[in-house]
Amino acid sequence: MFGQVPHTQYDLHFQVLGIPVRIHPAFFVLCAIMGFSEGWARELQVNVLIPILLWTGIVLVSILVHELGHALMARNFGWPPNITLYHFGGLASFQPSYGYTPTRSVLISLAGPGAGFILYGVVIAVEYLMAQQGIRQTPMMFYIFLQLKFVNLWWGLVNLLPVYPLDGGQVAQQVCQRLDPYRGMANTFKLGIIVGVGVAIVAWQKADETYVALMFLLLAFNNYQMLEQTSGRRGPW
Ligand SMILES: [Zn+2]
To answer: What is the distance in A from the centroid of ligand 1 to the CA of 116?
Structure first.
């Protein structure tokens, strides 16, 4: 997302569907912080390590599915991809060597959240089938299904907001450049600032979502910095 993710000797390497995947150790640190919940440990009547492990598995699978959506679409266009998971989530990289079009770029951007929405649908279907068969969910199954649905629906929707470099921001970039090839990038960043600050305010005031508010403030600031670099002058706009 923000430049290259540095390699370490603790990186995990493997392949999924022939696509190289690398997991930076900071990814697990992020999962441990987010997954820590004494409330859930009490609810499930387990050690506090268990919700952390379950959450790590849920986030790992969900982000991997999201990035595989991007990566498989890129490979479909003939551009070999690779995936990195790190402290800010996931990243699917590829070099569009030939046949690059704005439409293809938009399709690759949408394929990530799209893959997450499919996983969301699969979880709903499994829950429905279990209910049909009269299979009761254990508290742990309830936790896993709940978090899988939350992550794949809400993170996908948040990712579609037109704030660069989120997936929705990448789509906005293609649209802005199409509308105004000369000022397209600057307009993308301006949109990112407005929507980013707006989402931060709503998340802070109405939803009490401090983490989301901070993330969007950071993204808005990032867009402001990129806008300054694009326009080559000091001061806003
Ligand atoms: Zn994405």
So the answer is: 10
How much is the pLDDT for 237?
Answer: 44
The CA 159 to ligand 1 mean position distance, Å, reads 7
The structure tokens 């990530």 sit at 112
CA of 113 to the centre of ligand 1 (A): 6
Please state the domain extents for the chain.
9-160, 161-237
Mean pLDDT, consecutive 10-residue stretches, the chain (237 aa), reads 74 95 92 81 82 92 96 95 90 88 95 98 96 92 93 95 96 95 94 97 88 93 94 53
Q: What is the pTM of this model?
A: 0.89
Q: Residue 207 Cα, ligand 1 centroid: separation in angstroms?
A: 24
Number of other CB atoms surrounding residue 77 within 10 Å: 18
Distance 170 CA to ligand 1 centre (A): 9
Give me ligand 1 centre to Cα 24, in Å.
17
Neighbours of ion ligand 1 (CB under 5 A): 112, 167
